[in-house]
Design a protein that fits this description.
38% helix, globular, alpha+beta, six-stranded antiparallel beta sheet, seven-stranded antiparallel beta sheet, disordered N terminus
């Protein structure tokens, strides 16, 4: 498995390209490595360890390399046209509108918009959305991969099935198992809502199905058959933990098929965070593992917008997470379990799927690597043991589940990977989406944030404001509109086409230095249906 790009590509902001080129070096893994003091290590998901220093060596006459790639210390006068910008921004957008009558009842969800903008090549983020067919409700989720996209891809394909099975009553589980035993067609569990780029792995489908079947067989054995209300929170937690356990077990057992054997190992040694929402009537559950976020957009009586956070980041900025980690390990590890705001000084999120390097014992890691394929055995990253690694596991995939009862003023939910939250404040995110959905942004006064603005600059802001109306109409997708602002906003909070064009023109080698992958799902709620639920009670 290739070494993770994040080891060598820190995310930098507002930095001149000339500062980067002066520190270029050549990497044997075909990446351009940057170790400039201008690049903050705090933006890396993984912090480089001295063990990785052997990967890179200064390239002789590196300036010829950058010149050959036509990089220059002075900006090139090349900008994308508005149609070209729109083509890039809209390439991965997807929208789904829930039918007025969804077959069982009137849905509290009107529909959703989703989109992705890559920074990594290939993109490491994933997204999923599906309607539960044998139970009620809709599932939506974003998944942020690191050390590659293998784990986020697997989780995006599999997690909703584990959740759906966890929510099924005992009788339905028996019916599904009997159908498999007799070779009859299975009841469909999920109706997926996918963009054509959101693919499923056909090669691993049988392996994934067998693991899922084992899970529902165990649920059948554990359930007495008595009819009882299923606890959604417990079902979400069990599904997350079981899938992560299956990812680990599949990598330990291996597979006779060499392709599958390498795939399950790549999935296990890479990692992914997950933020998933389950909406059933007025009952909204958010299960979060890692540092993606769920934000509720609330419209106040005066028409203004406020943001309600429905998830907590699992990282060093969360005091409760720090305390949890320290309590799970001996006191003599209190200073080493989290160093430089990272798990064992390396990993930024404190909860994630995969990442068996932070979960398995050293002996198990060595045994699996030595018996694995040559690609794994020859890779320095997989053989590397984190420092101060004494009492694993240090990482868990157990989610933190938040419950919220929807109200008529709750208009939408934003699920997004940290690529969005690194660039925009939550209040700005909710305001921009709210104004987009209602078209009321024209009534807001222009805020200059304490800047001294000349008459000419104010004229320019008013001109941009007039043009902003056409921007709203050119975006038919709320997630696309949000990405446009995340990448192209200037200091006044308006989209600067020149800035947007520059950011989208960056070559693959440089894009990851300026921002992360961005994946967004905007779920719009039906206020009339939500209000009707309240009136019934």
């Amino acid at each position: 498995m290739p070494a993770p790009t994040q080891l060598f590509f820190p995310l930098i902001r507002n930095c001149e390209l000339s500062r980067i080129y002066g520190t270029a070096c050549y990497c044997h893994h075909k990446h351009l490595c940057c170790s400039s003091s201008y690049i903050p290590q705090s933006r890396l998901r993984y912090t480089p360890h001295p063990a990785y220093a052997t990967f890179c060596r200064p390239k002789e006459n590196w300036w010829q390399y950058t010149q050959g790639r036509r990089y220059a210390s002075t900006p090139q006068k090349f900008y994308l046209t508005p149609p070209q910008v729109n083509s890039i921004l809209k390439a991965n957008e997807y929208s789904f509108k829930v039918p007025e009558f969804d077959g069982k009842n009137v849905s509290s969800v009107l529909g959703f918009d989703s989109n992705q903008l890559p920074a990594n090549a290939p993109i490491e983020d994933r997204r999923s959305a599906a309607t539960c067919l044998q139970t009620r409700g809709m599932l939506l989720g974003v998944f942020d991969g690191h050390a590659g996209c293998a784990c986020s891809q697997a989780v995006s394909e599999r997690l909703f099935y584990y959740i759906a099975v966890s929510l099924l009553p005992h009788e339905t589980l028996l019916e599904i198992e009997n159908a498999v035993e007799s070779g009859r067609a299975l009841l469909p569990i999920l109706q997926w809502h996918k963009h054509p780029n959101d693919y499923f792995s056909k090669e691993a489908s049988k392996l994934y199905f067998n693991s899922l079947r084992t899970y529902w067989q165990e649920l059948i054995d554990l359930n007495t058959g008595e009819s009882a209300d299923i606890d959604v929170k417990e079902a979400l937690i069990n599904a997350f933990k079981r899938l992560d356990n299956d990812i680990s077990l599949e990598a330990q057992v291996g597979d006779p098929n060499s392709f599958l054997n390498y795939l399950v190992l790549r999935v296990a040694f890479s990692g992914a965070t997950a933020c998933v929402a389950h909406v059933d009537g007025v009952d909204l559950h958010v299960a979060n593992t890692g540092d993606s976020r769920a934000m509720l957009g609330v419209q106040e009586e005066d028409g203004s917008w406020s943001a309600v956070t429905l998830s907590n980041d699992h990282n060093a900025q969360n005091e409760r997470e720090l305390e949890r980690l320290k309590l799970e390990h001996p006191k003599n590890e209190a200073k080493s379990v989290v160093k430089q705001d990272r798990l064992l000084g390396l990993l930024m999120p404190f909860r994630a799927f995969g990442d068996v390097k932070f979960k398995w014992s050293i002996d198990l890691q060595k045994r699996v690597i030595e018996s694995g394929p040559d690609q794994l055995n020859d890779n320095e990253y997989t053989k590397f043991i984190p420092p101060n690694y004494h009492t694993p596991p240090y990482l868990t995939a157990e989610p933190e589940v938040t419950y919220h009862r929807l109200r008529p003023q709750d208009k939408f939910l934003v699920l997004a990977t940290d690529g969005l939250w690194e660039t925009m404040h939550r209040q700005d995110v909710v305001r921009i989406v709210g104004e987009y959905l209602t078209g009321m942004h024209r009534q807001q006064p222009i805020a200059v944030g304490g800047y001294k603005v000349t008459l000419g600059q104010m004229h320019g802001l008013l001109t941009e404001r007039r043009a902003k109306m056409s921007s709203v109409f050119e975006d038919q997708n709320a997630a696309t509109h949000l990405i446009r602002h995340a990448v192209g906003n200037n200091e006044f909070g308006t989209v600067d086409h020149e800035r947007l064009s520059k950011m989208l023109s960056l070559p693959e080698e440089l894009a990851r230095m300026y921002r992360d992958d961005i994946t967004i799902i905007v779920v719009q709620f039906n206020s009339h249906v939500v209000g009707a639920y309240q009136n019934q009670e």
